[in-house]
Amino acid sequence: MKRAIMEAERGENESLTREYVFLTAVVFVYELVEWWALFVGPGYELKSREFFVTRIGTDFIKRFEEGWSIALTMMLDIKEVNNTSGLGVSLSKAFGKTN
To answer: How far from 45 is each of 1, 16, 67, 84, CA to CA, in Å?
Structure first.
């Protein structure tokens, strides 16, 4: 696994070193309505110091024919040291019986 390091300005004489890390999470999804879902679940972040993460978020979903869908995702990772937020777009394909 390759990690990149980024230096970020923080104030006048202060900088913050950030690393791109690998984070894995198992989330449980609850669909409130056909186009909106909430999720939450535990995860683990791997970098120079490994720690536990809780991920919460929401998906806004547009479904298409034959089980295809696209979603806009907003999420928050709650960690021991700092919290991070993210935006994403996902494309998915459902298999089996779809409603």
So the answer is: 13, 19, 32, 12
Query: Which amino acid is present at 13?
Result: N
CA atoms within 13 A on the CB side of 7: 3
- Name the β-bridge partners of 70: 62, 91
Domains of the chain, residue spans:
22-93
Bridge-partner residues for 69, per DSSP? 63, 92
Contact by Cβ (8 Å): 61, 34 = yes
pLDDT in tens, 17-40: 667 778 889 999 999 999 999 999
Tell me: the pLDDT tens digits for 46-59?
A: 876 678 999 999 99
DSSP string spanning 14-39?
-EEEEE--EEEE--EEEEEETTEEEE
